[in-house]
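Data deposition worksheet. Section B asks for the primary sequence of the deposited chain exactly as it was used as input, without tags or linkers unless they were present during the calculation. Section C holds the resulting structure in token form. Section D is free text for depositor observations; keep each observation to a single sentence. Incomplete worksheets are returned to the depositor.
Section A, Depositor: J.P.
Section B:
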Amino acid sequence: MTLGTFDVTSYNSIEIEFYFYPNSMENGEDFWVQFHDGGSWNTVAAYASGTDFENNSFYNATVTVDNGVYNFPTNAQFRFRCDASGNGDRIYIDQVTITGNSGFAPIQTNTITNLGGAFEGFLGDEDNIYIERDFVLYPNPVKTTLNVKLFDVSNVMTYRIVNIMGQIVLTGVLSRDSIDVEKLKNGIYFMEVNDGEELMIQSFIKE
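Section C:
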């Protein structure tokens, strides 16, 4: 995935923040964040399966690029590349934010945070949130129709779908066992199901 060109000559450093979700990556397979300095591509961060991340977890990562290390041109580019064996290995990248800093340029640092099942950061801090298999979403990843299998249907079930930024994109009542998600943008989403007594959450990927 390669982003467009940017004039970064006025900045002392650039911060790249993004979320990712690895799936079926074998140990040692990795992906890189690369920066084009006007002359060549440079790897500014690398993440390896089994060392930096595990499959089927959500991560937030931040990369800082320093103009003391790399040339900052008028036509800078950024890209993500994946080294995988091609047998269904995937890295889902979402919510890429690139921020230029004109102040003091910090020492180049890379951070990565495993978000795991801590979805409260996106969905709030309700008292009765349960992240468990009370329902199943499939297929996952999904392209058009998201099927919902509930294991205990005793009350009226309402749902809402939230993107990784915490914005509500779909709401409704689960009167059917499927939801049309074709119009959603590609990315990572969380589905909340509320039966009036507890709030249950599952995640899915729209592609």
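Section D:
Helices lie at 120-123.
The radius of gyration is 20 Å.
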